[in-house]
Amino acid sequence: MRADALRNRERLIEAAREVFREQGYDASLDEVARRAGVGAGTLYRHFPSRDVLMDAILQSWVDRVNDAVDKVLVHEGAPRDLLLSWFETYVALISMHKGGPAKITSAMGDESSPIVTKCQVLSAATQRVVDRLEEEHALRDRIEAVQMCRLVGGVASVADNSDLDRAAVRPLLEVIADGMLA
Amino acid sequence: MRADALRNRERLIEAAREVFREQGYDASLDEVARRAGVGAGTLYRHFPSRDVLMDAILQSWVDRVNDAVDKVLVHEGAPRDLLLSWFETYVALISMHKGGPAKITSAMGDESSPIVTKCQVLSAATQRVVDRLEEEHALRDRIEAVQMCRLVGGVASVADNSDLDRAAVRPLLEVIADGMLA
DNA sequence: CAATATACGGAGACACTCTCCGTTTGGCAA
DNA sequence: TTGCCAAACGGAGAGTGTCTCCGTATATTG
């Protein structure tokens, strides 16, 4: 890849991070190009769709997910606390910008989504939590990681759309946790 | 109101119902006007925003909600069955067209939303289910109707976005029900 | 220092939202 | 019935966003 192409690619990702953070996932892509100081054509050549750009933005986010689940898992405590701790972390991780929760959760089962690898990271992290809880026989039968992702993702989507704060989200997560624990 | 105005209003509502059912809540409003055989100006004069149009579409839906909760409540059975029965009904009611679950659920707490009265109907119906279950001391403490709406609405949103079928939604609703029952 | 493959940029086609205002019409009063 | 005019209509067009195309510029290679 040519040096100028690489440079523009980085600029676009940085600009997109900024713009999406400020204005949410539905922000104008022309605005992203403008902010990056490149033409619209350059943006679309590097990132044919909004989702592909999203995927690039989330590249570094993968590490954050893995760090977060590590941190949650080292903590000793009751299964309920572990589960709730992961749920709250999960919500925070997918709520980076407006529209994020719905976007990520809807891509969860979709093989053809450009951000599928990112969803797999999140899903794998959740699976580690599930495995731990199953070791301790703390979970009901037939509870799958993907269901957790959908339920918690659903709560995060609603919270995102309705501007709920952590205090309002907490009891919703508690219901889900209690419904999953043996 | 002049006769032609009334006629165009009805035509617009009918066209919107059609178009939203076919293409979801994000469908083009110009297309609605076209389908109704009126100019764009006429549409926007009658319905200044998409949400106001949505509200008009839902006028008849109010009766369906009330009938549905009546039907659910006459059924004798275990609290869990009652709750799940309402949850499935609820999901069906708000999933009339793509984008509906998110739209309705996000308006749930918003006093200024044009569809707030419709949300109140749904919320009141849910409250009746909550009241019944509390009579039977079947619910945990501090479970509120609005939380049910948010949780079930969240599941419906995810199902809507990911095209989940009833079989995939059912276990998610079961988790929520189990988390709410004493 | 060419030569050339690679990448750039932004004009412009197309779609959607919403407004403005010249034109038409329904309903009433004479 | 006729004439008036408030009420309603409609669609052109301004504003904004998506995405493509292709003439132009430049990084790299020999």
General description of the model:
2 copies of one chain form a homodimer. The first copy, chain A, is mostly helical and 182 residues long. Chain A has helices at residues 3-23, 29-36, 40-46, 50-57, 61-74, 79-94, 100-106, 116-135, 145-162, 166-180. In chain A, α1 (3-23) packs across α2 and α6 (79-94) packs across α10. Chain A is elongated. The model of chain A has no long low-confidence stretch (mean pLDDT 97). Chain B binds a DNA duplex (30 and 30 nucleotides) through residues 1-5, 8, 28-31, 33, 38-45, 48, 50.
Q: H/E order of the elements of chain A?
A: HHHHHHHHHH
Figure out the total of helices of chain A: 10
- Radius of gyration of chain A (CA) equals 18 Å
Structural class of chain A: mainly alpha
Q: What oligomeric arrangement do these chains adopt?
A: homodimer
Name the biggest interface: A-B, 29 and 29 residues
> What are the low-pLDDT stretches of chain A, counting only 5+ consecutive residues below 50?
none
The amount of helix of chain A comes to: over 70%
Query: What is the number of strand segments of chain A?
Result: 0
Largest sheet of chain A: none
Separation of termini of chain A? 54 Å
Shape type of chain A? elongated
Strand content of chain A: under 5%
Q: What do the pLDDT scores of chain A average to?
A: 97
